[in-house]
Amino acid sequence: MSKLPPLAPEIAHLKPEEIENLYTRYLSGENAGILQEEYRIAETSKNLVSLFPPLILNENPCPYCDCAMTSKRRTKTQRASDLNLIKCLECGHFEDPQSGRFKKICNCKPCKIKRKEEEERREVQFRERIKEKYDPEQVMPIAYEVLDFKHKLTLISLLRCQTPESFDHIVPLTHSHRNHRLSPTAHYTEHLITSLQSVKAIIIDPGSSLHLFRTNTPDPFSVRWLANITLNGITRASLEQLFVKLHNDFEENLASTPASEIKELLFQIPQEEVIQYLHLKADILDVSFGAESKTPTIIRKLLETHSTAQLYTLASNAVDNAHLFREKKHVSHRHAANTIPGKMLSLAEKHVANGREVFEFSRDRDAPRSELSKVFFDLYLGETDAVFNCSPGKYWNEVLKRRLRQEDDQDEPTDIFCPECGSFKHSLRMKEISIYLTCGDCDITSTFSLS
């Protein structure tokens, strides 16, 4: 039985039957002043309805202390659909019969505990659904042999910089230390991860933070990853086994990798480093810069004849110029940023016209080398930061082409190679006095005249 509060002094002299009769007449709309006079209720500033004791709801016991719940009396102007709170006078628990966004939530201690237990139960059920949906055992591991060179380079870089001491998963990219980034830019990193995921070389670890699965497509930078590669055609290889295999492959000669894939990364990595540096400088000078299509194209062209260090100089001068242009001409950030790639190109052309070399900046401490760069240049090519002070175009023509020819397998019966990428994989055909060489790697056809 609930401990009811004492009756209001104004109606304490009335019997329970009289109180209920008074309340019934009040609800029927009789004049409150007449009722007060008839029932000898003193004049008060309170509304008559506020004097009535709460209703005892014996049919609604409190779920926690089993006492009957109570409810305030309904006013005569209150709609029948508007229900009052049901409250336990013993423990303070209440229930709101209303629904919708205005429904009140009880914060008594038992309710808080119950909600927490319910939330934990839902989390466990959700985790089970995630484990079932992303169960690694449901995904067939892919053969190591189907990976191309870029896949392997990305994987070994991930294993070097994004794995814990337990060496059993790839930690989220958001946990990367600034000096151990996978690639120079977030855009290229996303491209590399998406490429690995598309061939199922890596799969999402169901043990990732649960909140990441609230969306249909978990953020690739925030989830943990598992390698999904088999070395024996049957079982999924451990990260340790995969690491050893990748290292052994990267110690082989260059000729084992298609020349076109080597050349592509030789230019792509420094291109991303220059874009990284451009973003760094633009942020410092408050220039809104976005490398979309034009900037990468111009940087790729300049890398044929300029080193990364020289492009740092051109980039710095171009961003400075954009900042001054915005300050003096009061143009938009976007307008000012659009001048950057064109300015880099014109500055390079001006140096060539004047017969002067572009000054070389040193590497910026806030734009450190990526793990991809360290693995490709230091481990694979064996030359630390090879194209930072040498243009990739010059390094390709004067160093790598020669190395590819020297390290080519002895089984190759010819010394003819593609003049574009250095590959020995080609087909020849002759028409009249010309020979046409079609490269099997870069797919470029070169023409040689016999005259």
Written account of the structure:
Helix content is 41%, strand content 9%. With 451 residues, the chain is of the alpha+beta class. The protein has 4 domains: 9-95, no CATH class; 140-251; 276-376, no CATH class; 410-451, no CATH class. The strands form 4 sheets. A 4-stranded antiparallel β-sheet has the order 1-2-3-4, with no helix packed on it. The protein has a 3-stranded antiparallel β-sheet with strand order 9-10-11, with no helix packed on it.
Features:
four-stranded antiparallel beta sheet, 4 domains, 451 residues, 11 strands, alpha+beta, three-stranded antiparallel beta sheet, 41% helix
Count the domains.
4
With strands numbered from the N-terminus, the spatial order across the biggest sheet is 1-2-3-4
The DSSP helix count reads 13
**Relative helix content:** 40-55%
Mean pLDDT: 87
Which secondary structure elements does this structure contain, and how are they paired or packed?
Layout (H helix, E strand, L loop, with lengths): L15 H12 L4 H7 L16 E7 L6 E4 L14 E2 L6 E2 L13 H25 L8 E2 L5 H13 L24 H13 L3 E3 L20 E3 L1 E2 L8 H12 L8 H26 L9 H9 L5 H22 L3 H5 L2 H14 L17 H10 L11 H16 L18 E6 L2 E6 L5 E5 L2
Parallel strand pairs: 5-8
Antiparallel strand pairs: 1-2, 2-3, 3-4, 6-7, 9-10, 10-11
Helix pairs in contact: 4-5, 4-6, 4-12, 7-8, 7-9, 7-13, 8-11, 9-11
